[in-house]
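## Example pair
The file below holds two records. Each record gives the amino-acid sequence first, followed by its structure token line.
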Amino acid sequence: MEKDKIFRVAFIAFLPQMWKSLRPLYDAVKNAKDAEAIIIAVGYDVKWGDISVKNAEEFWLKEYPDSIFGYKENDFPSLSDLNVDFVFRQTPYDFRYPKKYSNYEISKNSRLCYAPYNYNFSAEKHLLIEYDKSFLENLDILFSDSRYIVDYCESQQKKYADIGTIDMYYVGSMALGRYHSFRKNKMADDKAFTILWIPRWSTDSVNNHGTSFFKFFHNIIEYFKKNKDINCIIRPHPFMFEQFIETGRLTNQDVTRIMNEIDESDNISFDFEMEYIDSFEKSDVLLADYSSLIAEYYLTCKPIIVCDEYCDWNSEPYVVDMSQTLYYGFTWKDVEEKIERLKNGCDDLEIERSKVVSKYLPEHMNVEEKIVNILRLIKNG
């Protein structure tokens, strides 16, 4: 293969839990005969984040021994030295990355690409955060998982003259595409009925979406103490406890006490693993704040109880149909009633959910191959 025909792609990542959104693309680039893939992993450590963040270095160096790993600015090479054509960063937010890997610096040396790290079903609130003006000013290529988001970004281009040309492609979601094989697996039916609760990290319900942790934690503890025949898995956002401490809602001692209380329970546990698919498989129902995991869990065809009354669903057809086939519980009384009905086999929305999954899942298949083909065409002019 002629050198000038080969395209080099750098993947800049930091959080192993989010890697599932880029891993299929990394694998596809690595397996392409006319492409080269590089992983640059940015280390981090927080005192009270999800315990798995402290294992991030181990993850990257064990899974990808050829990756470039570091913590400080000087640990990383410049992109001009690496001579890469395209760069995919795990998230659009500069504060998690060295300055030399800011959106602005990347766009000076390579073509900055973005394939969303989550499935964003917000109508506006979260789009303002994820696709803010400073990010769009430097973005070269968007591989979108939603037509709604393409329309949103085009509207921002018209609104702000500083946002230049962005090549936008609707290709589907790599995160959603992996459920094609998952939902064919037989779910265990000889286990205890299990709730998976995913409380959010944010305490700001006005500018973001708030957490149900403080609202429901004691209810959860009491309910499962009385119902020893069923289980609860709590999978907090990786930075939930860190945020609660920083905002003064909890102290270090509070977090230690909560951890110990859960450790002492026979039927409640925390899930701090890198991959959440195991908890998806073990659970029968998802209890969720606003989270992109709603869109993923939905593809298992299992029921979901949404406890965020401020979800601003957008008009993407999949989102509309999904939002109409979810259960909602904004008080513990509502949530408990829904759990009891589902535990007893009364899932009134099961058939409708299955129809929605069958209708939309095909749109999210082979997304990584679509992206590789587009990159190839761009490289070759």
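Second record, same layout:
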Amino acid sequence: MKVMESKLANVYHSLLRVGVVVVASLLLFDSGILFPVTEQLSQNAQYYVANVIGVGAAVEPTELNTLTAEISARQRDLDAREAALNEREINVDLNSLTDLESTSLSTYILSVLLFIILVLIVLNYALDSARERYVRQLERQINKEKATT
């Protein structure tokens, strides 16, 4: 039974270590600390995934649907104007703060996840060592009782 628990604990510790390495690598990649190109690549991948995800459906045309379609067309026109305005702001470099915020948000989330994993690993090792000391103490007491009887 102890051998099985020991093997499971070893596998668990290995998975935790691999998780920390993966999250730390992802954090380095996303933050662009080692190579600034990786930060831009990560940001572009996030934008691409956000744009690709969508759902489509067909509905019979009614008066309400046509009004909704007109409103949607106007909204798309406004979005196109906003995109053009954002493009001009980027050219003037007024929008650099927004890019910094979105990049730092993903870096912040990954940093928090890495910190949580590290805290869990430290807590796991602390609880394992406390349990091991308790088991040794119980074994000593049992051995003393056997020796006295």
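Notes on the second record: The CA atoms of residues 139 and 145 lie 10 Å apart. The longest helix spans residues 96-148.
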